[in-house]
Amino acid sequence: MSDMPLFCQKDLFEALRSRKEAMRIKILELSSERMNGASDCELIEHFVEDFRVEPLVVHDDKAEAEYREAKVDVSGDPKYAVFDRSGNAYVRGQQFVLHIPFTGDPDLVHTRPSQFGSSPPRGSVQKQGGLGGIILVSCSLPSDRANEQYVNSWIKDSIQTVKKYARWVSYDVERFNAGLEKAARSAIEKRRQELETQGALLKRLMIPIRKRSDAPSPSPVPMPKRVVKPLPPKRQVEQEYEIRNEDYEYILKVIRHGSRSFEASPEAFGKLSEEELRDVVLANLNGHFEGDATGERFRKKGKTDICIEYENRAAFVAECKLWKGEKALHDGIDQLLGYLTWRDTRTALVFWNKRNKDFSKLQGQVRGFFEAHPSFVRWEESGYSREWRAMIRSQDDEGRSISVHVFLVDLGAQLKDEA
Fold first, then answer.
1. Could you tell me which of 14, 16, 303, 300 has the C-alpha nearest to residue 180?
2. Could you read off the pLDDT of 139-187 as tens digits, one per residue?
3. CB of 34 within 8 A of CB of 47?
C-alpha cells in the first residue's frame, strides 16, 4: 500500500475556480442551434448537474480494521540498538490497516481545503465506482510496542482526522455547488445577448449573408402543435421559427371573443382581480393551443403575463393590466419591451376598465397616451373598434419594429375602486 499525505496535493479553491471557469467557457461556446433548442431553465439544470461536485461523506460507522504480521524498519528509531543505521533494520512486527469508506468525488481526498492543519492524515485511496471509495490508513509497530491502548487510540485519532478534513473539504464544495446556478444563469444570459446582438447585426447588413448548404429556411410556427422536451442532444441543424401572421390574428381573435364575454357579464368578471382575469384569458387560449399558453413566464428581464411558446421559443407575448391611465399604458409598453428578444415581433396589451364610468372619454385618450411613449413609431389598422394596433421601437435595436395590439375591455365602473 502506497502511503502518502492526503488532503494536500492540490489546492481545492483553485480546482473549483477552474471548474467554474470551464463551465462558463462551455456555455459561451454553445451554438445558436443549441441555445434555441432549450430554455434557460433546461440549460441551467443541465450545466449545474454536469459541473457540480459531489461532497465527501465519511462513513466511519462502517470502518473496518485489517491486521497482518509484518517486518518493521526500526533503523530510525533510537530506542533500538542498531549498529548500522545507513540501511534498513527490520524486526518482527504487526501492521494495522484502517478501511474508512466514503462517498463523494474521490479526487477530493487529494485536495487541500481552505481550512487545514499542519498534520494531514497519511494513507491511500481505493476508488469504487464513479463516486466513492475507501481511505486506507496504516500503522506498523514492532511486536514489543503493539498494545491495545495504543492501537485503539491510533484508530480513534485516525478516523477523527480523516472526518475533520472531509468536513473542511465538503464545506468548500457545498459553497461552490450553491453558486453554480447563479454562475450558469449569468453565462447563459450573456450568451443569449451575444447571439441576439449577432442576429440583430445580420438583419441590418446591406448585402445578403451566404447560407450554409445544410441550413434550413425559417419556417412559421405550427401553433397548435408543440412538444416540450428536456435539453436535446446536439443536432447538426436546428430549425428557426417565426410566428405566422394568421396565427397572430387567431390569437387576437380568441382574446377578443373572451373580452366580449367579460363585457357581457360585468357583474361576474368585474369582481375578479387582475391576476384572475389574466387566468381566464389563459384558460381561453389553452382551449385552442393545447396548454401552450402560460402565465408568469420568465422572459429576459421579467415575468410576462401571457406567453405562447413553441419548443421553448416565444411565439406570442402579452401583458395584462387594469386601466389606470397613461402611466399604466406606458408601464405595459415598458414591460413588453423588457420581455422581448430580437425574434419576438408580435405582441398584445390587454387593459380592463373597472374604475372609469366615462368609457367613451377613456377610449379617446388611448391614442394620445400611446403616442406620448418614446418608443412609438406609427399606427397600423386594427380592423376593430375599441382596439388599436401600433408599431413600437425595440429597446435593443432601433431599426426593429414590434407590433402591439391593444385591447380595452369595459367591465363597468365598480363601486369600490381598485387600489
1. 16
2. 888 877 778 888 899 999 999 999 999 999 999 999 999 999 999 999 9
3. no
Residue 296 pLDDT greater than 90, yes or no = no
Cα–Cα distance between 255 and 232 in angstroms, integer? 33
Is 1.20.1250 the CATH number for 241-410?
no
- Residue 225, pLDDT score: 33
Query: Radius of gyration of the chain from Cα atoms?
Result: 34
CB 7 within 8 A of CB 120: yes
Phi, psi of 28 (to 5 degrees): -70, -15
CATH code 3.40.91 region(s) in the chain: 241-410
Cell of 364: 379617446
User: How crowded is residue 51: how many other Cβ atoms within 10 Å of its Cβ?
Assistant: 20
303 CB-near residues (< 8 Å, 6+ apart): 296, 297
Bridge partner residues of 139 (DSSP)? 96
Place of cell 399558453: 293
Q: Between the CA atoms of 333, 334, 338 and 339, what dihedral angle is there, to the nearest 10 degrees?
A: -30
Q: How far apart are the first and last CA of the chain?
A: 75
Query: Which residues, in sequence order, are bridge partners of residue 352?
Result: 322, 409
3-class DSSP state of 53: coil
- How many helical (H) and strand (E) elements, i.e. helices and strands, does the chain have? 9, 19
What grid cell was written down for 17? 475556480
Which tens digit of pLDDT belongs to each residue from 19-67?
Answer: 999 999 999 998 887 887 777 888 888 899 889 999 999 998 889 888 8
Cα 287 to chain centroid, rounded: 30
Q: Per residue in 4-27, is it b (16+ CB within 10 Å) or e — as a string?
A: eebbbeeebeebbeeebeebbeeb
Q: What is the DSSP string of 323-373?
A: --SHHHHHHHHHHHHHH--TT--EEEEEEEESS-S-HHHHHHHHHHHHHTS
What is the C-alpha to C-alpha distance for residues 127 and 284, in angstroms, rounded to an integer? 57
The confidence score (pLDDT) of residue 100 equals: 92
Report which secondary-structure segment, H or E, holds 81. none
